């Protein structure tokens, strides 16, 4: 059996899948906050409980809000303080008596979508999350490409380019500080949070993403003007990513991916920001939603 664990700052979810990635069982617990030992024990207990239930030692994959450095084996997961800067894979492997693998949660999202039956025809699947932040995952032939130290796919920390700043207005473009320490990262513009901040600063009204989208569909002039600008900003930025990576398929996840107009407007806006011979890849909505993290973590042990 394939075990996937979605490791969050407030909860840990374990789900068990068969080799067709069909969910058989799941359990969710609060994330321990007091000690690293408690955190390790919580994961070990979930895994051992699943072992007893299914009568086997399942493979163990983790989806993390960060990554494990390939060179040092040390986890960089700053929003889980007790496990940050710890050798989590070494410690869990020793306690469980089996290999444990881990990847960034955006990579797990992309891997889950790439292993969907409809998507397996695509050699290169690019997952983009438009949620609390903006991030990505790169999957080649069913395997995550995580790079030299494990941070490939951190597309949210590409910064606004000339064309994006020109679109927003040289004298009025809001320049946001990013949690990474830099400024003008895509994470603070193409995310759901960025969508709301841009509307506030460009249109002068603080509304939720849902309110902006509802107003757009109702034909509100301010919302329509803003959405068209946002689509153009997304096309400029995602166009750069396509130029570098040339994916066969792009899958969108996160709350803003539920804005269906994007799937109509983005393919039309992208060609102006691509090379002449470039092809706009298929762009589709993620199929597995909130379960993509555990499903992708389980898929870390699948082979094509």
Element-level helix/strand string: EEEHEEEHEHEEEHHHHEHEH
Determine the CATH topology of the largest domain.
Answer: Nucleotidyltransferase, domain 5
Number of strands: 12
**Oligomeric category:** single chain
Give the spatial strand order of the biggest sheet. 3-2-1-4-7
- The top-level CATH class of the largest domain is Alpha Beta
Through-space gap between termini: 17 Å
Description:
There is one protein chain. This protein has 304 residues and is of the alpha/beta class. It has two domains: 2-110 and 291-301, 2-Layer Sandwich (Nucleotidyltransferase, domain 5), CATH 3.30.420.40; 121-286, Nucleotidyltransferase, domain 5 (2-Layer Sandwich), CATH 3.30.420.40. 35% of the residues lie in helices and 20% in strands. The protein contains nine helices and twelve strands. The chain has helices at residues 36-54, 88-96, 105-114, 162-168, 192-203, 209-217, 221-245, 261-269, 292-298; strands at residues 2-7, 11-17, 23-30, 59-64, 67-68, 75-76, 100-104, 124-130, 134-140, 143-144, 249-253, 282-285. Strands 3-2-1-4-7 form a five-stranded mixed β-sheet. The chain has a five-stranded mixed β-sheet with strand order 10-9-8-11-12, with helices on one face. The protein has a two-stranded antiparallel ribbon with strand order 5-6. Helix 5 packs across helix 7 (221-245) and helix 7 packs across helix 8 (261-269). The model has no long low-confidence stretch (mean pLDDT 95).
């Amino acid at each position: 059996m394939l075990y996937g664990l979605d490791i969050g700052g407030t909860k840990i979810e374990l789900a068990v899948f068969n080799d067709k990635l069909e969910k058989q069982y799941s359990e969710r617990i609060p994330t321990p906050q007091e000690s690293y030992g408690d955190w390790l024990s919580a994961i070990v207990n979930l895994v051992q409980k699943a072992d007893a239930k299914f009568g086997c030692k399942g493979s163990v994959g983790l989806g993390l809000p960060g990554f494990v450095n390939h060179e040092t084996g040390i986890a960089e997961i700053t929003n889980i303080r007790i496990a940050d800067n710890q050798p989590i894979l070494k410690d869990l492997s020793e306690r469980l008596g089996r290999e444990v693998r881990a990847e960034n949660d955006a990579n797990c999202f992309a891997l889950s979508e790439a292993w969907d039956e409809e998507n397996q025809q695509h050699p290169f699947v690019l997952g983009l999350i438009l949620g609390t932040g903006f991030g990505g995952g790169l999957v080649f032939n069913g395997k995550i490409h995580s790079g030299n130290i494990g941070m490939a796919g951190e597309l949210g920390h590409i910064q606004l380019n000339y064309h994006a700043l020109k679109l927003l207005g040289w004298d009025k473009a809001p320049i946001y500080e990013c949690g990474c320490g830099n400024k003008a990262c895509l994470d603070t513009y193409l995310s759901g949070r960025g969508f709301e901040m841009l509307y506030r600063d460009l249109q002068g009204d603080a509304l939720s993403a849902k309110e902006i989208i509802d107003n757009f569909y109702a034909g509100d002039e301010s919302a329509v003007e803003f959405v068209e600008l946002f689509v153009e900003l997304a096309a400029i930025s995602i166009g750069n990513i396509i130029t570098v990576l040339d994916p066969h398929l792009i899958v969108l996840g996160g709350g803003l991916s539920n804005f269906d107009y994007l799937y109509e407007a983005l393919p039309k806006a992208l060609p102006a920001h691509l090379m002449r011979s470039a092809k706009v890849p298929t762009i589709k909505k993620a199929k597995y939603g909130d379960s993509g993290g555990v499903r992708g973590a389980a898929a870390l042990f699948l082979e094509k």
